Amino acid sequence: MSFLKKPFRKIKDLSSSNNPSSNNSSDSVTGTSASTTSTNVATGNGISNGTSNGKALSLNGNSTSKRQSQEIISADRQRRSMDKARTKAENKKRQSMARIKDEKFLEEGPPDLTKLYRPYSMNMSKRWNHEHRVLFKDIDWEKSEGNILSFRARIHTLRRMSAKLVFIVFRQQTITIQGVLQSFKPHDQVKNGESNVGTISEQMVRSVEHYPSETIVVVYAKLRKSQKRVKNATVHDYELEVYEVHKVGDLTENVPFTVYDAENINRDKEDVDDEDDENSLLSDESPKPNRPPRQSQDFSRISLDKVIGDKLASRSSMDVSRQHRSLPQRVRLNNRIVDLRTAPSQAIFRIQSGICSLFRSYLDTQGFIEIHTPKLQGGATESGATVFEVNYFGRPAFLAQSPQLAKQMCIAADFERVYEIGAVFRAEDSNTPRHMTEYTGLDLEMALEEHYYEALNIIDGMFKNLWQGIYDRYSKEIDVISHYYPHEKVKWLDVTPRLSFSEGVQMLKDSGWVEENGKPPSELEDLSTRAEIRLGALVKEKYDTDYYILDKFPASVRPFYAMPDPTDERFTNSFDIFMRGQEILTGGQRIHDAKFLEKRMKQKGIKPDSMTEYLEGFRWGAPPHAGCGIGLERLTYLFLNLGNIRLASLFARDPKSFPAKPPTLALRHDEASTTNPPWERDDVEETTTGERLSEDDKKQLQPLEKLIANYGDAANTSWLDKRYQVYRHPSTGAAQGYIIYNNYAIAIGDPLCAKSQYPQIISAYLQFLKDSNKDLKPLWMIAGKEVEEYLGEKFLWRTLACISEERANPRDNPALKDSVLARKVRHAEKEGIKNNEIPSNEAVPEEIKAKIDEGIQNWQKGRKGTQVHLTQIRPWIDQEHRRYYYASGPNSSIHAIVVLHQLSPKNGYQVKFSLEFPSAPSGTIESLILFSLKSIAASDPETKQVTFGTGAMSTLEGGRNLGKHKVKALRKAYETINRQFRLTNKSEFREKMGCWDEPVFVCYPRGGLGAGGIRAIMGFLEEDS
Coiled-coil ranges per the record (predicted)? Predict the structure, then answer.
């Protein structure tokens, strides 16, 4: 990301005090006290000497003039920044007061006004009014014009035009219509001759305009003809004059994206905008004369806050140019419930429902009956390698790989023709766009009279009936989907081409096709996916069809029950059907002779004793039969050309589903749990220290100090500083610390809660920021891998790693391996340095405190220039969770201090402070750190690791949603900064102490960092001394 170059180039320029022509811009992020002092002296000389001392003084005067100009500009910018901050604070206070007044008006205002927008209670079953509420799909818009309609819908999007006018788009499934909510004066305030109708108050408009998108509401409105065509809704020529809006329920978590966003975002445009924004930071910040202003990336602000000049000019003011692009699939699938509300998803599953309906209806006309087979089986259906084993009351059982065995047993039971639509499980570790571990199977089986082509003909007819039925019934849905997933209509012939497997292989050979290993395809081996796609293209070229049958598959690639070809036992009476070059059906004739079936089972390595129930049907006599299995999701995604089978599954299951959960360790303070907070418990009556919990204690939020000891890592201990603000989740008590700097809310570290609660707390925190101050831009620093993954996958934030938690094993002694470190420790001992520990159950003596405080002051006086830090040096807070160690000299003077802060059971302790005071003998701090680690390992045997906190990594690594070029540019900029500020010096010292790196991340939304974000981060970290 090249945007880092400019701000950090300015840092470099500021540090170059020997270059009088360097551009020390006032918006640089760092500086040194030494250079400031030098500047003040030069300014004084310039003023006193004027221009009378010749050329040298003239140059000095020019330099002075520049410095004076820069000081004036800097002061002016600082004043404007303070004015802006004051204005924001006043606006926020005014908005808060207005909201309080509106809430009071809703509770105490005139009932005739407040009843129009009062939210419904959670439990609405107190009475049943049998009110008729309409569905948009049932409305005849032309005939219903002028009628007052009652309906339940979601707010698709909303836009405030003025204090008295709001446009709302309501959505029921795939149908959207624009509504107009406009306030009127009360009747007693209307002047003579003034046109005014209704009792809608401004308070109602203000309340409704704050409803977030996706809120469910019950609306009463009058249908009327729209003044202009509404392009941004599916109903173009009509709109609703809203009279009442009642909220049905609240959104308790931040929705990662709205349906409106998903249906209108053009990702390509956004990426271009993002590139432009970042590249612009390489050059001067002044706008280019011919460059249009960059649009906001916050789509909720676009839809809610932008007010056009002529508010009432057009009823199409909600219109935007619809971009027929969807959010990235990864984001959609990770937020599946919201994604399923979108028009393309709704259309996909309507078509999928139609496929099942057409499958059923056609087979019903052919004499089939529907069955429902068990999904727990005593043995593998086809191959033990791809079966899920489960514990069935202490005995092994398996999830059915298909209903194949049960279907055949039904044929043996004289059902003649059966079909089923049900779940199928395959334990195949295939992470491809066309495989899942659980899918819905469309299966049929039928008895044969003479030839297995009897079944093949019925299957062929079923597919053709299905294709035609979908195009006849679901043309509108297909049209919606085609905007997002362009595809051509499936082509099929009246007489479907039927190729033998050998003929298909020969077509591939004739075309010059070879497999990846360079070998031509074999007629006795299965075709690869690439070969199937190529064969589909050859068939399309030769026969002009997307749909064909491949017959006579080799026995080596078919299950044990496949009937051999009577003319060549190397092949079988089995077939696959293909569409768009990929297999959608596997079928064939089954073996019905019990003895031959047992023989084939043994050849395939299956024990007949494990499938006794299955074999009984054939031992007692079964007719010849054939059947097939179809994957519903694969059929859907290929027919609609979706590109990924997961988009055709409600909630896809693949090998990456259900990730392993880390083991849960016992909390240090059980009464400060967030999964079972104290106000929800009756079993916790005292703290871990034995103190009795009162009822008032149970109602209080868990102390932050105890949350850190339960769930915290090194970054969380910084939240105890006064400059941090801490968001508390109301229902769990979980915490998230952050700092507001300029227009940025910078979250530091992971939330203090159980990891399973991260999604809930992160979403609630982001929603809190949005609700409390829409102007704040969120950033996240020192995020662990779980938080980084959630922000990157759920919200498509960009992530990068340039810092790491530096951890050590307190039981290791690095001095045994490092001769330099060992020599320093010995030197400290020779100088009479003695390491001391203050017992954890004793308070720090005041005399010791005074000496340490004096040492810290002397240490701070020796610090020069810009310091980068997360926390302030306050060693005496939260002493309950801290361990203190100090090094004293022969004369009882204190030369160093180490403070360990207790973290979660997993993270152990943090070396919160390790300070070596001036005049301390060499090796003092190294000796004291090793002593403290050894002591904590002995006093707390459960401690597995200690962290020294965060340190700079030697190189920067890209995380999620970052292009290669951006990572390369960012890495180059980071290396320059690292060399200049020697960021890894501390890390190199810690490495000697036996530390290893555990990367943590910086995360930010698209377009949400830029130079301003970098300045905010650096400004928050800087400390001038």
Answer: none
